[in-house]
Amino acid sequence: MRRSWTLAFVASLSLIGTAAQAFNPTCDAEATNRKLVGAAKTSFLKKCEKDAKGPAHSAGAASATAAKSGCETQASEKKLKGAAKNSFVKKCVASASK
User: Fold this and answer.
1) Tens digits of per-residue pLDDT, 62-78?
2) How far apart are CA 47 and CA 31, in angstroms?
3) Contacting residues for 85 by C-beta, under 8 A, at least 6 apart
4) Residue 24's CB: how many other CB atoms inside 10 A?
5) Rounded-to-integer distance, Cα 87 and Cα 95, Å
6) What pTM value is reported for the model?
7) Residue pair 11/39 in contact by the 8 Å Cβ criterion
8) What is the pLDDT of residues 3-43, one digit of tens each?
9) 78 burial class (0-12, 13-18, 19+ CB within 10 angstroms)?
10) CB within 8 Å of 92: residues ≥ 6 apart
11) What separation in angstroms does the CA of 43 have from each of 11, 36, 46, 75?
């Protein structure tokens, strides 16, 4: 029984790796050049894919960071602390992202 679970796990990992390889062959080639295998390769491929998406993808993260900073400033102006501050910032960021 243990062996069948192990085989299923390895098979699922190979499918995940195959999907990542098909998505961006440049990242896969770089991982092969670096002789990465297993978890190191998977991690590298995820980072490579994220970086390949370019600055447009990063712009969303930058705007979210700016919104959070603005919300934290508002919370400080209202002199909120602890859970009240966290709740306010969370709601503020959510409404800013809409």
Assistant:
1) 677 777 888 888 999 99
2) 11
3) 72, 75
4) 15
5) 12
6) 0.39
7) no
8) 666 655 555 655 554 444 445 778 888 888 888 889 888 88
9) exposed
10) 67, 70, 71, 74, 75
11) 18, 10, 5, 37
